[in-house]
Amino acid sequence: MTPNWLIDRFQTLERDPGNLRGDHDLNPGMGILEDLTPAAVLVPLIERDTLLTTLFTQRTSHLQHHAGQISFPGGHADPEDTSAEDTALRETEEEVGLHRRHIRVIGRLDPYITRTGFSVVPVVGLVAPPFDISPDPHEVEDVFEVPLNFLMDPANHQRHKREVNGTRRDFYAMPYRDRFIWGATAGMIKNLYDVLVGDGPDPDFRRDFQGAGRTP
Predict the structure, then answer these.
(1) For 166, left (φ over 0), alpha (ψ -120 to 50), or beta?
(2) CB of 119 within 8 A of CB of 38?
(3) Interatomic CA distance for residues 213 and 199, integer angstroms
(4) Residue 31 falls inside a structural domain
(5) 30, 65, 146, 173: most buried, per Cβ within 10 A?
(6) How far apart are CA 173 and CA 158, in angstroms?
(7) How many whole angstroms separate alpha carbon 70 and alpha carbon 58?
(8) Looking at the whole model, is its pTM more than 0.90?
(9) How far is it, in rounded angstroms, from Cα 25 to Cα 32?
(10) Domain total for the chain?
């Protein structure tokens, strides 16, 4: 899986514009809220020398939404944003100081609907080092990277459950070392897996690629 392969994959991807992913994937009785708040995140794929990695943020503990959780950089759309891509790139600059000149947007994933009322467009971008990181201390506690092949191995996709207001909710989780990636972020990673690996490459590719991600 190379940057050029990823570009070709998204260029040939046939998407249903009406398809919505989200917390309801594992909780079909939950339904989808109306009056959703538009938002976007960047799924940053870093072109390191020997492999592709994925950049994440850990949010600070005092934020109103998803405090302390691991996320992709992003947030709600502002009126001056011209597109989901513009929202994702602006928020990435604001949150982690990663300037858009280092990012090549290569595609989108299906919108992800959260139970908290957001419609999030995951924007996939290739990031070319070297680049500077300057996290906003109000929003971001830490920034880290995870090998993409680890995230694309279904052996690392766990399914958990918890009670929310007395109702059981199932969710994906992808623990990596001492990091617990879960909830909407893990759901978007599962969406990326479905696009890149799940129903795309041939079986030999899936076997070799997934095997490369077995060791964190």
Answers:
(1) left
(2) yes
(3) 18
(4) yes
(5) 146
(6) 5
(7) 4
(8) no
(9) 11
(10) 1
Residues 6+ apart with CB under 8 A from 158: 172, 173, 174, 175
Q: Is residue 11 one of the residues assigned to a domain?
A: yes
What does each of the 216 residues of the chain score in pLDDT, given as a tens digit?
Answer: 799 999 999 999 887 878 889 988 898 877 777 789 999 999 999 999 989 999 999 988 655 555 568 999 999 999 999 999 999 999 999 999 999 999 999 999 999 999 888 999 999 999 999 999 999 988 899 999 999 999 999 999 999 988 767 778 899 999 999 999 999 999 999 999 999 987 544 445 445 555 544 443
Residue 117, domain member (yes or no)? yes
Q: In sequence order, which residues have a C-beta less than 8 Å from that of residue 2 and are 6 or more positions away? A: none
Q: Do residues 173 and 180 touch, judged by C-beta distance below 8 A?
A: yes
Q: What is the DSSP letter of 130?
A: S
Q: Is residue 158 part of a domain?
A: no
Check if the beta carbon of residue 78 is closer than 8 Å to that of residue 39: no
Distances (CA, A) of 167 to 67, 162, 164, 181: 21, 8, 5, 22
Instruction: Kindly report the CATH number assigned to the domain that includes residue 78.
Output: 3.90.79.10
Residue 148's nearest CA partner among 50, 15, 69 is 50
